[in-house]
Design brief:
mainly alpha, globular, transmembrane, transmembrane helix
């Protein structure tokens, strides 16, 4: 549905805004029902919680914008494959910034994933893969999406852990509600100032934007609860099942044909992520 939105004439920011416009009031109602039914008191809002959830929200906005722009340039399954480099990038940044050393096998697995990215980065019309293809706009956008999605997951888990006195579902939904409302306000303000009329166009396409908001809320709700239960890397690893649905959607919904090279690239990326979690 997000890819369909990209073809309606909405800007990348407008298509991203559609995720929050309709889901914000829905998640607020759901949160009220959850806490009221369980008799749970709302937790105090700390500075660290607000910092984590705001940073996560901004990173997720940037990641989604990159992905929507990418959908306009490459097919759906390839776009999702670029997004799935988030786990690989987290391993690299963890080693460089945090000193989380990887064994030799771990670095070998990362190289395997990099080869998959290199295969995907070349335009379908090219017979050979060039290292210069890594500088293509679609490759940069895909890797940026993976980076920001990975960062947002870490920040969201940090926000959930700040609510230690609540159960996993309450922590996840409380963090989700704050994240969506922050994203709605920040991106809405940007559109009003920089892309006048875009909010009206999002409302005009309400039949599909409302479905985007609903499915986004359900998916994000499950993801936030998972982040409150487990390490982000493991959550993302289980999320690789998304690749199966992406490939099926690309083939049967969008009628897009994936080349053998793109299929091999996607396979290497998924394989490297799974191996990294298992043996890295």
């Amino acid at each position: 549905m997000q890819k369909h939105l990209a073809a309606t004439g909405l800007s990348a920011a407008g298509a991203t805004f559609a995720r929050y416009l309709w889901s914000a009031p829905l998640v607020a109602i759901l949160l009220w029902a959850l806490f009221s039914h369980s008799g749970t008191a709302y937790p105090p809002i700390g500075v660290w919680f607000l910092g984590f959830v705001t940073a996560g929200g901004i990173c997720q906005i940037l990641a989604t914008v990159c992905l929507v722009v990418l959908f306009k340039q490459r097919n759906f399954a390839v776009g999702i494959s670029f997004k799935k480099t988030e786990t690989l990038q987290a391993a690299v940044f963890g080693a460089v910034l945090l000193g989380d050393a990887l064994p030799l096998m771990g670095w070998g697995i990362i190289v395997l994933g990099f080869c998959g990215v290199l295969l995907l980065s070349s335009a379908p019309s090219n017979a050979l893969v060039s290292w210069r293809d890594l500088l293509q706009r679609s490759t940069v956008l895909g890797l940026a999406a993976g980076f920001f999605f990975g960062a947002s997951g870490v920040f969201y888990r940090g926000a959930a852990l700040e609510l230690a006195d609540l159960g996993a579902v309450h922590r996840g939904m409380f963090s989700l509600a704050f994240a969506i409302w922050i994203q709605l306000l920040l991106l809405g303000l940007y559109l009003v100032m920089m892309q006048r009329g875009e909010v009206i166009r999002v409302i005009r396409h309400w039949k599909i934007t409302a479905l985007v908001g609903l499915t986004s809320m359900v998916g994000s709700g499950c993801l936030f609860v998972a982040f409150s239960l487990q390490n982000v890397a493991y959550v993302n690893a289980v999320g690789q099942i998304e690749m199966v649905f992406a490939a099926l959607s690309s083939r049967f919904v969008f009628k897009e044909h994936t080349t053998q090279r793109e299929a091999l690239g996607m396979t290497l990326i998924v394989l490297s992520v799974v191996l990294l979690i298992m043996f890295g």
